[in-house]
Amino acid sequence: MALYARGATAAIMIQENWDPNITTDILRCLSQIAPPGQWLHDHVDGNADAHIKAGIVGPSETIPLEKGEMLLSTWQNVFFCDFDGPRSNRELVVTLLP
What are the structural domains, with CATH classification, of the chain? Predict the structure, then answer.
């Protein structure tokens, strides 16, 4: 199965889902790598950091399926990352391959 986040400031991540601190840690790390308000694109629409973060994380993931179930480990989960939102309309494309 292939997952693809449509949008230049959205991304897909597979990450631990047990400890809620991991999402905070990831967002804090990405904010340190790409802080808002200091990029040339910010003069256009103020969201350059969202573009950079989406580029770092990436727009897609491929997950193997077995008997219709995703083969994620016990601690893994799929996260849809909206770095410029939340937006009212975001799309996730799911492609199932034989």
Answer: 2-95 (2.60.120.460)
pLDDT tens by residue, 17-46: 999 999 999 999 999 999 999 999 999 999
- Which ranges of 4-93 does DSSP label H, i.e. alpha helix? 21-33, 42-45, 48-57
* 74 three-class SS: coil
Cα–Cα distance list, 4 to 46, 79, 93 (Å): 24, 12, 5
Amino acid at 38: Q
- Record the pTM: 0.92
**23 CB-near residues (< 8 Å, 6+ apart):** 15, 79
